[in-house]
UniProtKB/TrEMBL annotation:
Domain Acyclic terpene utilisation N-terminal: 4-442
PANTHER family reported for this sequence: DUF1446-DOMAIN-CONTAINING PROTEIN (PTHR47472:SF1), PROPIONYL-COA CARBOXYLASE (PTHR47472)
Protein name from the UniProt record: ABC transporter substrate-binding protein
Highest taxon above the source species: Bacteria
C-alpha cells in the first residue's frame, strides 16, 4: 500500500526554523508544509504591500527558504506553504531568486492567488458571522478581505510538477491534505476520504503543538527536552490511516495526550468541522500508541462541502497607546498603585478621549482581573501598565507620554519606563458564495 510521508515545518509566522531544517535533512519526507497565516496576518501583510508593492509576504520567508531549500532540493522534498500572505506571486519570485543565488536549477515554483476578494466585499451588505452586524458597518475601515481557498489550486500546481507551492489564504489543513489527495488520486466528492485527509492536516498544521509544545505543565504534564523539540511528520497510507511521529532523537513527545489535545484545538464542533472542501467529522477518530513517539491514527469521515467560503475581513478598529514603568523595594506595590491613580487622573484632566482603559499591576492583577488588594504577600517589585484604546494615533501617543512622565512627576523610584502606540487591525468574518471566488495558479521556473 502506497505511503506518503509529510511533515510540518511551521505552525505560525514566527515559528522556529531549525526543526524544519531537521525534517528536510533527516525526515525522509515527500512533502514539507509551512502554515504561517493567522487571522490578522494577511491584513497586516496587505498594509505592508501598500507601502511597498515588492513585499506583503511572510517576513521570515527568505530566511526559511535559505535555510531549508538546500536539504529539500537534495532530498527531493516538495514544499507547500501559505507564506505568500498578501503577495503569493512576489513570494514565488523571492523563492526563485534564492534558488538561483544558491545555484539550483530545474525548480518549478507555483503561486496560488485568487483568495483576495476585497472587490466583492467592499460595499456589500453581507451578514457578519461570529458577531453581530454587517460588512457595511465596517465601511471606510476595511483593509483586506480574503477567502479561505481549499485544496484545488494546490493540487493543480502539484499535478503540473511544481516543486514548491506558495499560497495566500487557504485553509490550514489544506496545505497538508492537498498532497495526500493528489498522491492517492482521491475524488473531490469522496467525502469520507477527504475528511480523513483533513484529520491528518489538522494534526500536523500547528507544528510542535502535537509534539509537546504549548502543552507542558511541570508536575502535571512533563515533556522532555523542549529546547530541542522536534516538529511532527506523518506516514499516511492510501486507506487514510497514518502513523504520527517526529525525527528520532529530537525533543518533545508524540503521545495519545498530545494528539487528543491537538485534534480538538480550534474545533467548535468535532462532528462538523467546516472546511472549504468538506465538512469533516473528527468524532470517529481513534488513536493508538504503537511505540515511543509513534501514534497510529484511524477513522474520520466527512460530509458534502458547503456552498459558501469563509472570508476573513481585516479592518482598522482603533489605536492603542501603552506605557509601562517598574517600582522595586519596600512599598513597591503602593507606589505602583499611586502611579496608576496619577496617570488615570491626568488623562482625565488633560482631556484625552480614551474609549477603553486598563490599569494593570503586572504580577498582581494583569491576568486575573480584579485580584483583591493585600490578599498575597507584598511583592518585592511590580511593573505597572497603562493601556488605552483611542480613535486617533495622536491620542494613543498621549497615554504613553503620561506614563513616561512618572519618572520625574510620580512616586519615588520608578525606572525602566517604556511607551508605544500602534493602530489595531481587527478581524471579522462573513460568508461568500464559492462561485464568486476564482483561484488561479502561475509559475516561476528556475
Amino acid at each position: 500500500m502506497k505511503t506518503i510521508r509529510i511533515g510540518c515545518g511551521a505552525g505560525f509566522s514566527g515559528d522556529r526554523i531549525e526543526p524544519a531544517v531537521e525534517l528536510a535533512e533527516r525526515g525522509a519526507l515527500h512533502y514539507l508544509g509551512f502554515e504561517c497565516l493567522a487571522e490578522r496576518t494577511t491584513a497586516l501583510a496587505q498594509q505592508a504591500r501598500r507601502r511597498n508593492p515588492a513585499v506583503g509576504f511572510d517576513p521570515l520567508l527568505i530566511a526559511r527558504f535559505k535555510a531549508v531549500l538546500p536539504a529539500a532540493v537534495k532530498n527531493r522534498v516538495r514544499i507547500i506553504t501559505n507564506m505568500g500572505a498578501a503577495n503569493p506571486l512576489g513570494a514565488a519570485k523571492a523563492v526563485a531568486a534564492i534558488a538561483r543565488d544558491i545555484g539550483f536549477a530545474n525548480l518549478k515554483i507555483a503561486a496560488v492567488e485568487g483568495d483576495d476578494v476585497l472587490d466583492h466585499i467592499a460595499g456589500s451588505d453581507l451578514q457578519l458571522i461570529e458577531r453581530q452586524g454587517r460588512v457595511s458597518d465596517l465601511a471606510g475601515r476595511i483593509v483586506s478581505a480574503n477567502a479561505y481557498l481549499g485544496v484545488g489550486p494546490i493540487i493543480e500546481a502539484l499535478a503540473a510538477g511544481s516543486d514548491i507551492v506558495v499560497t495566500g489564504r487557504v485553509s490550514d489543513p489544506a496545505l497538508f491534505a492537498a498532497p495526500l489527495i493528489h498522491e492517492f488520486g482521491l475524488e473531490m466528492e469522496d467525502w469520507d476520504r477527504l475528511g480523513q485527509s483533513m484529520v491528518i492536516g489538522h494534526l500536523l498544521e500547528c507544528s510542535s503543538q502535537v509534539t509537546g509544545g504549548y502543552f507542558a505543565d511541570p508536575g502535571y504534564k512533563n515533556v522532555a527536552n523542549l529546547a530541542r523539540i522536534g516538529f511532527p511528520l506523518a506516514d499516511v497510507r492510501e486507506d487514510g490511516s497514518a502513523i504520527l511521529t517526529k525525527v528520532e532523537g529530537s525533543g518533545g513527545e508524540v503521545s495519545l495526550r498530545t494528539c487528543k489535545e491537538q485534534l480538538l484545538y480550534e474545533v467548535h464542533d468535532p462532528a462538523a468541522y467546516i472546511q472549504p472542501d468538506v465538512v469533516a467529522n473528527f468524532s470517529t477518530v481513534s488513536f493508538e500508541q504503537v511505540g515511543p513517539n509513534r501514534v497510529a491514527i484511524s477513522g474520520g469521515s466527512g460530509q458534502a462541502r458547503t456552498d459558501t467560503l469563509k472570508v476573513t475581513i481585516g479592518y482598522l478598529d482603533s489605536y492603542v497607546g501603552e506605557g509601562q514603568i517598574s517600582y522595586a523595594g519596600s512599598g513597591a506595590r503602593a507606589r505602583g498603585q499611586l502611579a496608576l491613580d496619577i496617570v488615570e487622573e491626568r488623562l482625565k484632566l488633560t482631556g484625552v478621549p480614551v474609549e477603553e482603559l486598563r490599569l494593570d499591576t503586572i504580577g498582581v492583577n494583569a491576568v486575573h482581573r480584579g485580584a483583591a488588594a493585600g490578599s498575597d504577600p507584598e511583592p518585592a517589585e511590580v511593573r505597572i501598565r497603562v493601556i488605552g484604546r483611542t480613535r486617533s494615533m495622536t491620542d494613543a501617543i498621549r497615554i504613553g507620554n503620561e506614563v513616561e512622565s512618572l519618572w520625574l512627576s510620580g512616586p519615588a523610584g520608578g525606572g525602566g519606563a517604556t511607551k508605544s502606540a500602534r493602530e489595531v487591525i481587527a478581524a471579522a468574518s462573513t460568508l461568500l458564495s464559492r462561485d464568486v471566488v476564482k483561484p488561479r495558479v502561475s509559475y516561476e521556473v528556475v
